């Protein structure tokens, strides 16, 4: 697990400036405090920061050169099944000199080129420089678990694990209008674009090749729609799921350092713990974030599960000044305004885990694969939404937050928009009424993914929403996980995102997902012998926090809220019609509906004040 960065001057033999490359590399020290390396040869340069997980000796040092000297590799991630390839590599004449997956990745590339990618079970972002053909190849894993950003600027190609490294190299930090619009309407920027002008992401499951003369090609190496269509029928889904899930966890326990579990007390992380116990893993440490507010707290369930399996349990709460400080830190690590609102908590729990473990397992991905969000239920009967839209002013709908949100969602007419805005907290009509912003974003990437989802699951809005979220919302969650855990110099692994599970679940009939009161039917069925009823039947809380109360009642936020009401943010033409003082007053009077409107703006204010001024 690491931070990677690089510079390629195009159409020029201008030598890479070692000081700039070093500065980029060392800004990512939190991603890899154990080792560092540089490679510079004329117009190409790589930087690497290492968090040692597999082969913690100096043999795993990067940048990594091939034995014949032709290729140079910088790599961030883990190939969980790397040992499977030893016999094949040895029979083809390769010596294996380390116990690191980096060496296996390089030698597989030498043997098979990029055709090897489909055989890798792991999370990765890497770059390979081919000295002979003078081309740079950058690759990202199937689901985008590991980040990779790039910019073409001043006839130079820059890339890095985090945007901040690009800004420190001289790429200007400028907000993109399209990005700003997506942030307000959709909570985050999807696809290859980012909040910034001239900064893009390599898309998950994609390869980009940059030739020294500036010619660039992009190709998709993993296509989830095609994989689902080609999946053979699963004969016994519950047995298949349980066996594959256990194997996924076994693979993700491959490590030369201690591995722990982020344990919320919910179904997903408890299933991971139950699988570890079933496979006789001992001395596992678990880490939990608790809340003093009962409706947000699952700590008692997490503690019960850890004690049941005789595993270590560590919990903490985050309040007042500590919460404010972690908000500032997580904004820095995130590089963008935070949007899930759980980033400070995840950073804090990762920092708590760091002295005990170097790797944590997380339950991320289960909801998007198996229908775990309540918001998907609104798509079950689209015609009912029309009825709710017409009776939406009844007290029963406006006084309960969940129903109040449903009445706002029901105003959306187009089926495509019901999917595209399903993960939003405020919808186009709300934004028009409250912010005076009437034009939704172009959302070209989201529309493209929706089209794919519709062709794969025609007339099935729920399945369309799952497929859509797997390419959009889940990517933002994985980015959050990566930034918060790596901010604490710790690696996060997601067992639910094994490619066999992603594809297999996508091929199953609806009944395996949407049966029962709370859905995720196949997971509950597979785990019913391993988990107590308290877990199987508990109301889903998720990592949610009462931010409306935090910013209005916590002393640490009082001053910030005053500063927010006068923020430079509201000088931006896009926000000129927002009466922020009125929104804040309504929140202070106890109108909890205002939280959904205020928090994206508040987090952007924090980002402008503490992050955007650094570069």
Automatic annotation (TrEMBL):
It catalyses: L-aspartate + L-glutamine + ATP + H2O = L-asparagine + L-glutamate + AMP + diphosphate + H(+). The keyword Iron does not apply. Its EC number is 6.3.5.4. GO terms for molecular function: asparagine synthase (glutamine-hydrolyzing) activity. Residues 2-213 form the Glutamine amidotransferase type-2 domain. Pathway: Amino-acid biosynthesis; L-asparagine biosynthesis; L-asparagine from L-aspartate (L-Gln route): step 1/1. InterPro entries: Asn_synth_AEB, Asn_synthase, ASN_synthetase/amidase, AsnB_N, GATase_2_dom, Ntn_hydrolases_N, Rossmann-like_a/b/a_fold. The keyword Lipid metabolism does not apply. Keywords: ATP-binding, Glutamine amidotransferase, Ligase, Nucleotide-binding. Pfam families: Asn_synthase, GATase_6. CDD domains: Asn_synthase_B_C, AsnB. NCBIfam families: asn_synth_AEB. Belongs to the asparagine synthetase family. This is asparagine synthase (glutamine-hydrolyzing).
């Amino acid at each position: 697990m690491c931070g990677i960065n690089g510079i390629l001057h195009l159409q020029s033999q201008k030598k890479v400036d070692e000081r700039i490359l070093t500065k980029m590399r060392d800004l990512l020290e939190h991603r890899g405090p154990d080792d560092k390396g540089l490679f510079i040869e004329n117009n190409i340069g790589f930087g690497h920061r290492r968090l040692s997980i597999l082969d913690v000796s100096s043999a795993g040092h990067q940048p990594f050169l091939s034995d014949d000297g032709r290729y140079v590799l910088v790599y961030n991630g883990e190939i969980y099944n790397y040992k499977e390839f030893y016999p094949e590599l040895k029979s083809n004449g390769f010596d294996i000199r380390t116990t690191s997956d980096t060496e296996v990745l390089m030698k597989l590339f030498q043997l098979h080129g990029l055709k090897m990618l489909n055989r890798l079970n792991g999370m990765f972002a890497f770059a390979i420089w081919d000295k002979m053909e003078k081309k740079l190849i950058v690759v990202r894993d199937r689901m985008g678990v590991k980040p990779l950003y790039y910019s073409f600027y001043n006839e130079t190609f820059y890339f890095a694990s985090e945007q901040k490294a690009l800004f420190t190299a001289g790429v200007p930090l400028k907000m993109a209008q399209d990005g700003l619009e997506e942030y307000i309407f959709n909570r985050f920027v999807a696809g290859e674009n980012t909040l910034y002008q001239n900064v893009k992401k390599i898309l998950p499951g994609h390869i980009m090749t940059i030739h020294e003369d500036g010619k660039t090609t992009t190709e998709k190496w993993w296509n989830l729609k095609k994989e689902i269509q080609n999946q053979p029928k699963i004969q016994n889904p519950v047995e298949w799921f349980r066996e594959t899930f256990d194997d996924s966890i076994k693979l993700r326990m491959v490590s030369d350092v201690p591995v722990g579990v982020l344990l919320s007390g919910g179904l997903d992380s408890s299933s991971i713990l139950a699988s570890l116990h079933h496979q006789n893993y001992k001395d596992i440490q678990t880490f939990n974030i608790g809340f003093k507010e009962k409706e947000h707290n699952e700590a008692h369930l997490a503690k019960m599960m850890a004690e049941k399996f005789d595993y270590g349990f560590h919990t903490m709460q985050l309040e007042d000044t500590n919460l404010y400080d972690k908000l500032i830190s997580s904004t820095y690590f995130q590089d963008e305004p935070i949007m899930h609102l759980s980033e400070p908590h995840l950073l804090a729990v990762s920092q708590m885990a760091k002295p005990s473990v170097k790797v944590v397992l997380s339950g991320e991905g289960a909801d998007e694969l198996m229908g775990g969000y309540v918001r998907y239920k609104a798509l079950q009967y689209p015609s009912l939404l029309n009825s709710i839209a017409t009776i939406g002013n009844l007290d029963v709908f406006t006084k309960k937050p969940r129903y109040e949100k449903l009445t706002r969602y029901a105003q959306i007419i187009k089926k495509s928009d019901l999917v595209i805005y399903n993960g939003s907290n405020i919808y186009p009509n709300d934004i028009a009424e409250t912010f005076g912003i009437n034009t939704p974003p172009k959302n070209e990437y989201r529309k493209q993914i929706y089209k794919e989802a519709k062709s794969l699951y025609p007339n099935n809005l729920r399945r369309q929403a799952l497929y859509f979220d797997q390419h959009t919302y889940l990517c933002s969650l994985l980015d959050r996980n990566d930034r918060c855990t790596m901010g604490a110099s710790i690696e996060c692994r997601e067992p639910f995102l094994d490619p066999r599970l992603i594809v297999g679940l996508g091929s199953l009939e609806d009944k395996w997902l949407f049966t029962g009161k709370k859905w995720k039917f196949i997971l509950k069925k597979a785990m019913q012998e391993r988990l107590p009823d308290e877990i199987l039947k508990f109301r889903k809380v998720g990592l949610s926090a009462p931010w409306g109360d935090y910013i209005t009642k916590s002393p640490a936020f009082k001053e910030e809220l005053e500063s927010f009401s006068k923020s430079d943010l509201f000088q931006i033409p896009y926000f000129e019609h927002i009466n922020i003082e009125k929104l804040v007053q309504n929140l202070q009077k106890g109108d909890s509906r205002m939280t959904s409107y205020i928090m994206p703006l508040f987090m952007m204010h924090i980002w402008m004040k503490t992050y955007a001024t650094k570069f």
